[in-house]
Amino acid sequence: MRSSYVPWVTRGAMGKTDEVRRFTPAGIVFAVLLAALGGALAGCGSGGGPGSSAAAPTGSNAATTTSGPGAESPPARLTGRQTVTLRVPARMEGGTLSSPHRLEVPKGWTASVWARVPGARMEAVTPEGNLLVSVPGEGKVVELSGAGTATKEKVVLAGLESPQGLAFARRGGGLVLYVGESDQIDAYPWLGAGEVGKQTVLAPDLPDETPAGDDIHRQKDVVVAPDGTIYFDVGSSSNASPADRGYDPPRGVIDSVAPEGGEVTVVMRGVRNGEGLALAPDGTIWTAINNRDEIPYPFHGEAEGQSEAFGQVIRSYVDNHPPDEVVPVSQGRDLGWPLCNPEQGKSTPKGSLANVPLIPDAVTNPGGKALDCSGLEPIEVGIPAHSAPLGMSFLDGSKVPAPWSGGAVLAAHGSWDRQEPRPPAVLWLPWDAKRKTLLPAKTLVGGFQEPDGERWGRPVDVVPGPEGALYVSDDTAGAVYKLVPPR
Q: pLDDT at position 213, please?
């Protein structure tokens, strides 16, 4: 039954998390057990050891941009920065890691390559303290373990259809691993030591490759709520086609399904590609969303030499609009895509990436005739346009030290067509416990992009390990990095 459900570990949440403390005494016992487990991921040691805003777009109505992703003053310990050499063990050199690279990190942090996993995507820490990594391109999920570096790799699942999202939870009397394939959501009894039981398909026949579109988002992320409900994203089949809003089954949504499977419920609409699902300290689910490209200019008047720029693709505007989105998932909410777009030029103060209002799209919804954007909730947190946020984890309850434990980490994959390219990065978003919301992001780790715009790495996901380090997957370098904060 739903009421007997006791969460254990959800994607991105470790140790004595709030959802465990709120539930039955059995949950407390399991939390203590997890805290006592030996850190099979790695010891405390590590070796070795930003996204910038572009010029404001032209035109009298063009939005100004802030000097960084956030609008709030950072904690004192986030103001100190240093550049460190990424330590690469000799046996892990190769590819883009054949030459030395430098990363920008907070003072006292170190960075090293912990594992090489070609095509590494989403991550989850097992109850034993090891690291699961999905590899969609090879249809598999692997378990990594080791101390200073990963010394053992085991294939846990194989032959899957583009698996991505991973989440652990306790259901009934046992632990369950949830996996998001591109066409279904699976559950596997977790037997320990990298072994799973028989697959149960909780949500079959999900939208995947069809209908043909200009920007199909196949892969699914998953997260488990405190009541056991499984949430997952179904991305759009296009960059900005209104047809996506009418498909059956729907695209551009966040869905949910009960722990035992059954009917799939649409929770939130107008979500172009919400892959970054994570559980917040207050038990809410949040998602980080990749927003659209080539947005038409939404204001009447002159821009870039055009006397009437409305509805035209103005490059200086496109480069900084629309912001990507980080929002809580709530039943019945509509984020408006592709009829409405967040516009930081209408924020208060202008350019702020907190509580960004939505305005009508100049081409798909001129004048707001198809959807009244003013009636939609503002976007809680904007991320600079074309950051491409992917995996996200809240750090509350982990052993990551303050101030970072009081927020969420987010992997930004970087832009694909922006001029200049938006750099890949690991971002940190403070959590406002009083208002129960995230605040605009700060760059935690940068340096994955060279001055000429070439990238040697692109983060996909970031999770806290049991010993307080952060583990970052990178599908371009084919690696998992270990980031160790000072003690």
A: 66
**Residues 353-381: pLDDT tens digits?**
999 999 999 999 999 999 999 999 999 99
- Residue 275: count of CB within 10 angstroms of its CB: 30
Q: How many CB atoms lie within 10 A of CB 331?
A: 10
Q: What is the pLDDT of residues 150-165, one digit of tens each?
A: 999 999 999 999 999 9
Domain membership of residue 186 (yes or no) is yes
Backbone angles phi, psi at 434, to 5 degrees: -70, -45
Q: What CATH number is attached to the domain comprising 73?
A: 2.120.10.30
Measure the CA–CA gap between 187 and 455, rounded to whole angstroms. 36
Contact 372, 441 (CB under 8 A): no
Domain count, the chain: 1
**Three-state secondary structure call for residue 100:** coil
Radius of gyration for the alpha carbons in the chain, expressed in angstroms and rounded? 21
Q: Which domain holds residue 154?
A: 2-330+386-484
Separation between Cα atoms, residue 400 and residue 384, nearest integer Å = 26
Number of H helices, E strands in the chain: 4, 32
Question: Is residue 363 domain-resident?
Answer: no
- Per-residue pLDDT, averaged over 98-105, amounts to 97
* C-alpha span between 466 and 375 (Å, rounded): 43
> Residue 267: which H helix or E strand, with range?
strand 265-269
Give the containing element (helix H, strand E) for 18: helix 18-21
Q: What is the rounded distance in angstroms from the CA atom of residue 264 to the CA atom of residue 267?
A: 9
Is 356 contained in some domain? Answer: no
State the burial class of residue 409 (Cβ atoms within 10 Å of its Cβ: 0-12, 13-18, 19+). buried
Cα separation, 477 vs 464, in Å, equals 20
Burial of 190 (0-12, 13-18, 19+ CB in 10 A): buried
Phi and psi for 96 in degrees, rounded to 5?
A: -70, -10
The answer to whether the CB of 2 falls within 8 A of the CB of 90 is: no
| pLDDT of 26 higher than 70 | no
Q: Is residue 312 part of a domain?
A: yes
